[in-house]
Design a protein that fits this description.
Blueprint lengths: L1 H17 L5 E3 L4 E3 L1 E5 L7 E10 L22 E3 L11 H5 L13 E6 L1 H6 L2 E7 L14 H9 L6 E5 L4 H5 L11 H16 L5 E11 L1 H11 L9 E5 L12 H10 L14 H12 L3 H14 L20 H6 L7 E7 L8 H4 L2 H4 L3 H16 L3 H11 L3 H5 L1 H18 L6 E6 L38 H20 L20 E4 L9 E3 L4 H7 L21 H13 L9 H72 L6
Parallel strand pairs: 2-5, 7-8, 7-9, 9-10, 10-11, 11-12, 12-13
Antiparallel strand pairs: 1-2, 3-4, 4-6, 6-8, 13-14
Helix pairs in contact: 8-10, 14-15, 14-21, 17-19, 20-21
């Protein structure tokens, strides 16, 4: 240890003359050795950093630790080489690595990667950015980030950010549940929390400041960022968050339960006739014991088969009750103002997914339904499955989205734009700043290598990542490198200074709940952006965030479901109307089954609602009849009393006269 400290001191004093590098680090678990990497692709010069790849932040979650919260990392003797990415967590390797060949996967996957530079190692006070990958909680990995792009955009260019990327358990390994209070839940979220705690403990050795930690994510990773920051367990651990194109989380208490049960049935760990009721403690223990005894690949194969070839879904977090990670629904937490506010940079793309575009882009003669009928059907599904007053919701939904172009945005308004405002409102405070953006640049063209089914206009979901983390990057033109420098620079400014303004000349105004200020990101030929605007996505906010719109939390779903996600509603509808497979998660046959099941469920909900309405009206009529009857009786009694008093009084008058009492006029 003393020798290492002496070496670091000598390097600090002499590195400019002798080229000494900081690639040996002493951690509390043991010594690691990384390597120096240099990004040479940018026209703005080479950028060098020290990379430490594959550092364990928790014990391998295998054997008895499968389905358990993460444990402290192991210690080791000697020097551990950290020069290559470790395997991705258990997932579909082709989808995780985004190629036709895949890559290594393993259950022993709780590793992270750190990128730093000489400046940070000397100064010991650089800001830290923890990047949480996306992938719908079922695939992707920290190993899919190109180290050279991270180095160029955040560690280099005098931005001097210590970047950390992490793995967390996916699918049934990280988010399965069996509707049992005794089992650990939301394990993948606890992995992320454990990684954050590791960073706070060890990041000083890499030149990072544990009091300047920003967590960042895109899409599913953005949702995880928000949920971690919402959890009471993260209070004080993180200081800022970056939420890029995050779908607003719609959680339930039972999410993933049916898919997990189906996986247990498929692996013969649960009887086929077990159903979906609450299991006893002894049965749950037997099922988990059986599942822990399976090879990891066997369990993954069962998961992939269930997700693709059954009607059950796996891919969300859930309210975990007495376990404190997510103690309640996000809407309720925000309504109670129980979210701990932190500086937030949050934004969306102007096209995102457009899953509801079928309402306007399908010719009526091809689907035998009018656009009005398609819109009404979609509004009724959402209204009857989610809200307390479905008739009122459906009527106003149809009115708000009756315009053909507006209908294209219905799902994105609900999932992205209204959700971004809810999160912004939850974190704006006298002591924090929130910065909101809308990215509308359509000129990426050949630099972006991704498509959606059906095709989506530019800029679609994840298109901007080519300029930050490098995901889906293809052939970059000279203009793209300039945009990369500007766009990634705004995120770097937020991490470093809490303010993403691109320059002193173009200030980014903080968000306020009243004006909803946002920064309009587009690039003209001179790479100038429109800048600050107000009233971000007015229609989405007016409709989806109005105070009178009250959700129900009944935990009642269609037979195959245990949660409501707008994408899981729209995928079967799109598939059915187009009569072909339109998403990667389900086969066409399963989407067809889901479509008809969901339609039948809607009919059932509407019928029950009508019966309830008739019953209520009958009660009101009976009540009105009873009131009228009682009023008639009461009136009769009153008239009788008045008559009786009058007659009695007259008789007494007569009596008084006979008795000689004085009669008062």
């Amino acid at each position: 240890m003393c020798a290492l400290q002496t070496l670091l001191i000598l390097c600090s004093l002499l590195f400019r003359q002798i080229g000494c590098t900081y690639t040996n680090i002493e951690l509390s678990s043991g010594r690691i050795q990384g390597e120096t990497l240099t990004a040479t692709y940018s026209p703005y010069g080479s950028q060098s950093a020290h990379a430490f790849l594959g550092i364990p932040y928790a014990r391998a979650p295998v054997g008895s630790l499968r389905f358990r919260k993460p444990r402290a990392p192991p210690t080791w003797q000697g020097i551990r080489a950290t020069k290559r990415y470790e395997s991705a967590c258990m997932s579909d390797p082709k989808r995780t690595y985004k190629n036709g060949e895949g890559g290594p996967i393993s259950e022993d996957c709780l590793y992270l990667n750190v990128f730093t530079n000489d400046y940070c190692m000397e100064e010991k006070r650089c800001a830290v950015m923890i990047v949480i990958h996306g992938g719908g909680l079922q695939y992707e990995s920290a190993a899919t980030f190109d180290p050279l792009i991270l180095i160029n955009n955040f560690v280099g260019q005098d931005r001097n950010i210590v970047v950390v990327t992490i793995n967390y358990r996916l699918g049934v390994f990280g988010f399965g549940q069996l509707h049992a209070d005794e089992a650990d839940k939301n394990i993948g979220l606890f992995d992320i929390l454990q990684a954050i705690k590791w960073v706070r403990k060890e990041i000083g050795e890499f030149g990072g400041n544990k009091e300047r930690i920003t967590i960042a994510g895109h899409s599913g990773g953005a949702a995880l960022v928000y949920l971690v920051s919402t959890s009471p367990l993260s209070k004080g651990l993180i200081h800022q968050q970056i939420i890029m194109s995050g779908q607003y989380p719609s959680l339930s208490k039972l999410a993933n339960y049916k898919a997990t049960s189906a996986i247990a049935v498929k692996t013969a760990c649960l009887p086929e006739d077990a159903g979906f009721g609450r299991l006893s403690k002894s049965v749950v223990e037997k099922v988990y014991s059986c599942l822990r005894g399976l090879p990891a690949q066997t369990l993954l194969d069962a998961q992939l088969d269930v997700v693709l070839n059954t009607t059950y879904y796996l891919g969300t977090t859930y309210v975990d009750g007495e376990f404190p990670m997510l103690p309640d629904y996000p809407d309720r937490l925000m309504d109670r103002k129980s979210v701990y506010p932190i500086n937030t940079l949050i934004g969306t793309l102007s096209a995102e997914m457009r899953k509801s575009s079928y309402v306007s882009d399908l010719a009526p003669e091809n689907v035998h339904k009018s656009r009005e009928d398609l819109l009404k059907n979609l509004c009724e599904h959402i209204g009857y499955e989610l809200y307390r007053e479905p008739e009122d919701f459906s009527q106003k939904c149809v009115q708000s989205y009756s315009n053909a172009s507006a209908a294209d945005f219905l799902s994105d308004d609900m999932e992205f734009y209204a959700g971004a405002v809810k999160i912004a409102n939850a974190h704006v405070s006298p002591t924090t700043n929130v910065f909101l953006y809308s990215y509308t640049y359509t000129g990426a063209e050949k630099a972006f290598d991704k498509y959606q089914i059906p095709p989506v206009p530019s800029p679609q979901h994840s298109e901007d990542l080519i300029y930050t983390f490098g995901t889906h990057r293809a052939v970059m033109a000279p203009k793209d490198y300039e945009i990369e420098r500007i766009y990634s620079g705004m995120f770097a400014n937020f991490v470093n200074f809490g303010d993403p303004s691109p320059s002193e000349q173009q200030k980014w105004q903080p968000y306020s709940e009243k004006n909803r200020e946002y920064f309009h990101i587009d690039f003209d030929q001179n790479f100038t952006m429109p800048g600050t605007n107000v009233q971000y996505y007015q229609r989405a906010v007016d409709f989806w965030n109005r105070p009178s719109l009250e959700k129900r939390y009944s935990e009642r779903w269609a037979p195959s479901l245990d949660n409501f996600m707008i994408t899981n509603l729209l995928a079967p509808i799109n598939s059915h109307l187009r009569q072909k497979r339109t998403d990667f998660d389900k086969s066409f046959e399963q989407n067809e089954q889901l479509f008809f099941e969901r339609e039948q469920f809607l009919v059932q909900l509407k019928t029950e609602r009508r019966r309830r309405g008739v019953s209520v009206r009958d009660q009101e009529i009976r009540a009105e009849g009873e009131i009228s009857y009682l009023f008639f009786i009461f009136s009769g009694i009153l008239l009788f009393v008045v008559f009786h008093v009058t007659v009695t009084h007259f008789a007494m008058d007569k009596q008084r006269r006979k008795d000689g009492y004085e009669v008062l006029e």
